[in-house]
Amino acid sequence: MGKGMEGVLLTLAVAFYCVGTAGYLVFLIRDREEVHRAAWAVLMAGAICHGAAIALRSAAKGYLAVTSSPEALSFFAWFLVIAYLVLSLRLRLRILGSFVSPLAAVFMFGSTLLPASSIPSGPLFRSSWVVVHVATLFAANALFAVAFAAAIMYLLQERSIKQKRLGNLHSRLPSLERLDRINHICLLVGFPLMTVGLLTGFFYASTVWKSPWNWDPKEIFALLTWLIYAVLLHERLAVGWRGRRAAWLAIFGFSAVLVTFLGVNLLFKGHHSTFVG
Amino acid sequence: MEITLIGMNHKTAPVAVRERLAQVCRLDESPLEKVRQCPAVDELFYLSTCNRVEFLFTTANGPQALEQVKELMFGHLGLPGLQLESHLYVHHDLEAVRHLFRVASSLDSMVVGEPQILGQIKAAYREATQRKTVGVVLNRLLHKTFSVAKRVRTETNIGCHAVSISYAAVELARKIFGRLHDKRIMLVGAGEMAELGAQHLLAQRVRDMVVVNRTLERALELAARFGASTAPFENLLEALVDADIVISSTGSIDPIVTYRDLKPRMRRRKNRPLFFIDIAVPRDIDPEVNRLDNVYLYDIDDLQGIVDLNLTERRQEAQRAEHIIESETLRFQQWLQTLDVVPTIIALRRKAEAIRQAELKRTLSQLPDLGEREREAIAVLTDSILKKMLHDPIVFLKHKSGRESKRLFVDFTQQLFNLNEDRSSSASSLDSHER
User: The complex's ipTM?
Assistant: First the structure.
């Protein structure tokens, strides 16, 4: 974790996210407008502190600070919170916050626990390919995380309807069609973003290592993840998959995202660790 | 001043009388037009729905006003008093306030928690304000009623649970499909229950409906009523491909839709969700179909189960609502108590004003040369002296209004300023003064 001002901001952000998450969990149980408003505002405050911290660190380094696992995870949590805050204004689907905010809080916590290994900075990071690569993949991942949250909500709601046990959760969760649609849209937008992110990555790799494909663990897992989402998209569009199966596949896909994104950094040593330690 | 409520509802009136209530609530004419027939009544509010009628009034002369309002009610309902008398309930003061709060919060409704009643009370209140039959007390009481009802609705889950079978089915459909207006409903069989369910769905702005029945005649009749199309019974399975919600109520002994029928058709409908509401006994739809992805099947027992569960839930929520009403009733009582000191305050002001006017008249008649400006200045001067003089005693009285000892201070003030001579008139002039 950073020092001084940046450390204070990050701590504040973690605290805000935790309080916001608690608020959203209360909102899940009791449908009170003021609870939602407070939780939303707290998350917003967290996102502002968090954004400032990232900006400070990036300014100090001279490039976007996503070059270590904790940094990347923290950046991802920030993206997720921002994505939710923006979506909640447009979608009027406030209950989503009860599922997205815990995810962001967990990521944020994770980023403070992960070992920070710093990487000697170099001119490599300043290429505009890197910026496109990072931005599109993070956006895609944030969307997949939202899809993941919607899929969990779908499965909960579907189970209560199928088993005819309509509890409190049933009345708080939105309709199946709506949840499935969110899942669908996140996939429709996220998949092209992911594709662009991977292509720029490969292209950039070929300028650095002379070959776009080097059997690097990160590359292998990224391609697997892409394939999972490609299958999901195909089944959805061509075969008409929807509902429970699509939800499970969205959950599976996001697990693969997490493995690619974090697991590989932590468990394997490949050449991508030149960038993210 | 007292508040009285007189009325009857589905619990007190037998069916014969309720039928009359239902007729009366559709009439345009309002008994408020005839408020002149009740000279003892100060303020009057009237509520009529298909299973209740309530008259709420304030008066300084309780027994007389009660008789007059009863006459008004009997006349309005067009039934002899002898027949109605035994079904009436009469509530006074806090009891009346509590009753109104309970009615508005839908605790006294036939279907507890149903939301329409509040709207009906609001409409009735609008009517009363237009006819100017409500004043300070009832204005305050009705506004308080609206906020109590709103509080009950937001702080308890009393309105959240479907308590009729058709409503439970609609709620489920909304949890599956979200918006219903672009969905297609299929009625299989044409029983009364199916009709009821269809009506509820139509109320959700569903426009696309198809009726499938063994006898074409009945299908056509029903289709004409709902603006639906018909399909032959033999094509039932094919028609399933385009339907979203199926309400089934045939008299068939064997299932008319089975797992094996449906499985290939789900693929053809690209797995769009399909919701079966099976209200037939014996059941029309093979229970196995619920195992298919994106197919949801509820039979009559399932729906009844939800309704029973919701009723239990509602009863618990109703207890919490009663608690809210109890505390709000007490708060309204506190406000009412401040009213007890109001006649004294008015008498005090009136006496001071009378003295001022008399003295002004005398003084000005002795000073005929004064111009308009000077006269004005003297009037303003005397007025502000009075106001400042009376300010502290009035604040003191208002402050004491919630206390047990207020009687003492009211009497004391009346003796101190010798207000007793005009006290009897001030009590009844309170309402006209502030109206």
Answer: 0.79
